[in-house]
Fold 2-C-methyl-D-erythritol 4-phosphate cytidylyltransferase.
Amino acid sequence: MTAAAPEALSPVIAVVTAAGSGSRLGAEVPKGLVPLAGQSLVRRAVQGLLASGVLERVVVTAPQGWIEDFRREVADLGDVEVVAGSSASRQASVALGLEAALRAQPDAALILVHDAARALTPPDVIQRVVAALREGHEAVIPVMPVTDTIKEVRTGEAVEPIVATPDRSRLRAVQTPQGFVRETLLAAHRAGAQRAASEGLAASDDAGLVEAMGAGVVAVAGDSRALKVTTSLDLLLAEALLAAEERVPAQRG
Ligand SMILES: Nc1ccn([C@@H]2O[C@H](COP(=O)(O)OP(=O)(O)OP(=O)(O)O)[C@@H](O)[C@H]2O)c(=O)n1
Ligand SMILES: C[C@](O)(CO)[C@H](O)COP(=O)(O)O
């Protein structure tokens, strides 16, 4: 860990992954375009990032064939580029977003990778991630404590045998944005792409690629509002969270 002056760790850019189809949500349009109280998930996710005040540029990866629809969603939000992601995996979509983002901002020092599906992530989570990077950590992820007891099972059997019960106090559920020093993320994705080609395995998050390289990843506090909209139940929950936030100022006033 090497602490650098904050201004030396600028500019900060973000890749927003929105190239998934949202099969578990089952909407008629890709998940990023699904409205949440009148505004699409991708629009809300980008707005949240920009509201943090720490970002120079945002690149969104969208599904092939939907680029123009995504562009319309973010057109009025500022310096936001939309490029095609990959249907193969989130990891492949992030890699395409990274290429585009670094073409547009070659001097980026810090890179955030964020899920459009975490549309309600509050700006202070984003600020915490960037602050920890500027304190000298090379990879930072927001996390939440786990509230269920988690079991490890042996898969592939109709009735799955339990093989372990990890100590819950040491488990964390991982959110985004995940933040990285530029070279750390690029090296991790280079190694990850080789593994994906040789073993056919993609990582489900970017920090996993950094861990696989043997580099350190640290956690900061996440937020329950940064939930990932995956199923229709999550969408209902997100709508309820927004409605509750709108009611609170009215009650105070
Ligand atoms: N090939 C892919 C797959 C996922 N993602 C993005 O990664 C984030 C997290 O993925 P998830 O919530 O699983 O989204 P989907 O893959 O769209 O969902 P599903 O698995 O239900 O199809 C989403 O913002 C999604 O758009 C992506 O950019 N490219
Ligand atoms: C990156 C992530 O949101 C961290 O929890 C998650 O791993 C994405 O996984 P998914 O299977 O693509 O939803």
Summary: Helices lie at 41-51, 67-74, 90-104, 123-134, 182-199, 206-212, 232-252. Residues 232-252 form the longest helix (21 residues). The chain has a mean pLDDT of 95.
